[in-house]
C-alpha cells in the first residue's frame, strides 16, 4: 500500500477552456458540466494538474467532439423566382436552388428533390439545378408555376428544409 500523501487533481491555469468540465479533486474523474457543440468547437485541450503536496505534474488531455446531425439544411433564399420564356429548350437549366448545412461531413451533405407534382421539371439531386423536361406554354389563366423543393441532409435521422 502507498503510504505517501494523497493525490490531488485540478485543472492547471487556463486548463479548462470555456469551463465545460469539472474534475473530482480526490479521484481525478473528469465530468462534462456544459454541453459541447461541434459547430462551436471541434476539440478542447484540458491541462490536468496532479499533486501529492510535495511534487506536481501537468498533463494535456485532448477532447475530440463528435458531430451529430443537429442542424437542418437552410435555403439561402426564402423563395426563388425565374422567368421562363415560352418554348425554352428542353433540358435547359433554368435555376439553381442552394441550401447549406452547418453540420460536417455526411451530416452536412445535402440532396434536393421536387415535392410538387410536375412532369415539366426535374432537379439535379446533388447540386439543386432545376431543368425543363418538356416545353412550357404560356397560359393566360395561370401564368405562374410553383414548385416546392426540399433540401434533405444525409444525417441520421435526416433533417429537411
Can you offer a commentary on this structure?
By secondary structure, this protein is mainly β. It has one helix at residues 105-108, and strands at 8-11, 21-23, 30-32, 43-51, 56-64, 74-75, 93-96, 99-100, 110-114, 121-123, 129-132, 149-153. A three-stranded antiparallel β-sheet has the order 1-4-5, with no helix packed on it. The relative contact order is 0.17. The mean pLDDT is 92.
Beta-strand proportion: 25-35%
Oligomer kind: single chain
Apparent shape: rod-shaped
The residue fraction in helices comes out at under 10%
SSE map:
Layout: E1 8-11, E2 21-23, E3 30-32, E4 43-51, E5 56-64, E6 74-75, E7 93-96, E8 99-100, H1 105-108, E9 110-114, E10 121-123, E11 129-132, E12 149-153
Antiparallel strand pairs: 1-4, 2-3, 4-5, 6-8, 7-11, 9-12, 10-11
What's the short version?
This protein is mainly β and 161 residues long. The protein contains 1 helix and 12 strands; from the N terminus they run ββββββββαββββ.
Any descriptors?
mainly beta, three-stranded antiparallel β-sheet, 1 helix, single chain, 161 residues, 33% strand
Amino acid at each position: 500500500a502507498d503510504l505517501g500523501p494523497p493525490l490531488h487533481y485540478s485543472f492547471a491555469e487556463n486548463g479548462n477552456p470555456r469551463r465545460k468540465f469539472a474534475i473530482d479533486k480526490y479521484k481525478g474523474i473528469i465530468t462534462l458540466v456544459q454541453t459541447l457543440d461541434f459547430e462551436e468547437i471541434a476539440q478542447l485541450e484540458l491541462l490536468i494538474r496532479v499533486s501529492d503536496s510535495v511534487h506536481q505534474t501537468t498533463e494535456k488531455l485532448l477532447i475530440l467532439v463528435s458531430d451529430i446531425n443537429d442542424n437542418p439544411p437552410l435555403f439561402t433564399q426564402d423563395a426563388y423566382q425565374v422567368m421562363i420564356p415560352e418554348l425554352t429548350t428542353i433540358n435547359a437549366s433554368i435555376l439553381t436552388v442552394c441550401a447549406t448545412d452547418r453540420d460536417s461531413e455526411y451530416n452536412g451533405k445535402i440532396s434536393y428533390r421536387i415535392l410538387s407534382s410536375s412532369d415539366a421539371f426535374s432537379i439535379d439531386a446533388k447540386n439543386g439545378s432545376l431543368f425543363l423536361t418538356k416545353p412550357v406554354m404560356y397560359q393566360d389563366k395561370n401564368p405562374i408555376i410553383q414548385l416546392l423543393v426540399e433540401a434533405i441532409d444525409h444525417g441520421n435521422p435526416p433533417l429537411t428544409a
